[in-house]
Amino acid sequence: MTFSNPWFFAAVLGVLGVFHLELIVTLLNLARLGRPLSPALAEVFPEKTREKLQEYITDGKKVDFSKDAAFLVALILFWWGGGFGWLQSWANSLLFGPVETAVVVILFALMAQMLIGLPFEIWDTFGVEAKHGFNRTKLGTFIQDQLKGILLMAVMGLPVVWVIGWFFQTQVQAALYAWLFMASFSVLMTFLAPRVLMPLFYDFKPLETGELRDAILALSEKLDFPVKEVSVVDGSKRSSKANAFFAGFGKTRRVALYDTLIASHSTDEIVAVLAHEIGHNKRHHVPIGMVVGLAEMGLMLFLLSWVLKSPGFFSAFGVSGSPVGMGLVLFGILYQPLGILTGLLGLALSRKNEFEADAFAAAALGTPIPLMEGLKRLSRDHLTHPQPHPLAVFLHYSHPPLVERLAALEKL
Ligand SMILES: [Zn+2]
Fold it and tell me: Are strands 244-247 and 204-206 parallel, antiparallel or unpaired?
């Protein structure tokens, strides 16, 4: 570690910069919790709900801040204590080939990240979420989820890491190949996630025949959006928060509704929420989002391949030579601030798409009222921030704030 190394300063500035930026955004956002509400919002959030959501959001931010601080301290201690150099020599001493050594280093980093994050996940689930009445996760389910997560990482994550490591170890055009590989992998995942991954964690049951099922099928018919199956997901096994999504494409498409959504919303509201989701499909938001994501990934891999060729980058972290696996781990640290920047475009696009999907739903149903009522109920039930700070929206929000969506719907 030399202080004349520009990579060292860039990395320190990046890591500390992100930490402080997040802290400032959090404080700005919390400060706006006490602001008086406009009449439209006051109707959505009665006084009692406001007290509850102030406490809930503040408690959640305490967890987030503590987690960020723990990661920062752990990183600085490990880094400045020579941890990265030690990790590389230890991995080398195992005498595997270079690609396997890379996988060992990456695995170590992933496990460390998981272990440091675990207490905060426990605090969030059994502390904050439980205190505010959202948590339904039993300890057994939580432990099972963790083990399944580790198993998935071993079965799916490790081979991916191995392939990426192999490209960068052996190929001149590694960034291009890695990009093509990741693009195919993410397309594969959109097929696999609802069929193979989600059923590992949730139970899918067909929705009983009745008013709700008829209304959903009538909507899909009216909008020429074929649906093969309507399923109910036991979201209530983990949280009282509601959700719904479409999975699959074309004639094999399925709708999944969380049981918690069915329990807390009227048929009209659920149909409006689904019309919004169909709007995303009809306006091609999914493939567009994927293209933006892949462009982002291409940029990231290009930067990675450039960084891997800079010996100064490795020595900034106390590592000699330029081992690929370590390069990926260290790049992950450096990419934090860059990732915020490159993510801004995707978030802005996503917020724009939400308005479009809302407008589609209102036009399809001939009225914006049920969607407005559904959005209000979701915001109230989930205790979301009624008027987030614009900087927080700009940096983090994939959906526009409730008040903006209601205003846009009102105009229709
Ligand atoms: Zn949406």
Answer: unpaired
47 is catalytic: no
Helix H or strand E encompassing 233:
strand 229-233
Residue among 22, 124, 269, 358 flagged as catalytic = 358
For 319, the 3-state DSSP assignment is coil
- What digits encode the pLDDT tens for the residues 359-368? 999 999 999 9
Q: Give the distance, in angstroms, between the CA of residue 201 and the centroid of all CA atoms in the same chain.
A: 17
228 alpha carbon – ligand 1 mean position (Å): 21
CB atoms within 10 A of CB 15: 19
* Coil vs helix vs strand at 231: strand
What whole-number distance in Å separates Cα of residue 84 and Cα of residue 103? Answer: 15
| Tokens at 332, concatenated | 């992950």
pLDDT at position 2 is 63
Question: What's the distance, CA 110 to chain centroid?
Answer: 17
CA count, 13 A, side-chain hemisphere, 168:
29
C-alpha–C-alpha distance, residues 204 and 216, integer Å: 17
pLDDT tens digits for range 180-205: 999 999 888 888 888 888 899 999 99
Q: Do residues 302 and 383 lie in contact, with contact meaning Cβ atoms separated by under 8 Å?
A: no
Residue pair 401/363 in contact by the 8 Å Cβ criterion? no
Distance 274 CA to ligand 1 centre (A): 9
Q: Where are the domains of the chain?
A: 6-203+283-411
From CA 324, how far away is CA 174, in angstroms rounded? Answer: 11
pLDDT value, residue 25: 97
Strand-pair partners of 104: none
The CA 394 to ligand 1 mean position distance, Å, reads 17
Secondary structure of residue 244 in the 3-state scheme: strand
The angle that helices 324-365 and 267-282 make with each other, rounded to 10 degrees, is 120
263 burial via Cβ count (<10 Å: 0-12, 13-18, 19+): exposed
Neighbours of 1 (CB within 10 A): 14
The DSSP-derived string for 255-268 is EEEEHHHHHHS-HH
Q: From the CB of residue 390, how many other CB atoms can be counted at a distance below 10 Å?
A: 12
The model carries a pTM of: 0.89
Residue whose pair of structure tokens reads 């320190």 in the numeric block: 12
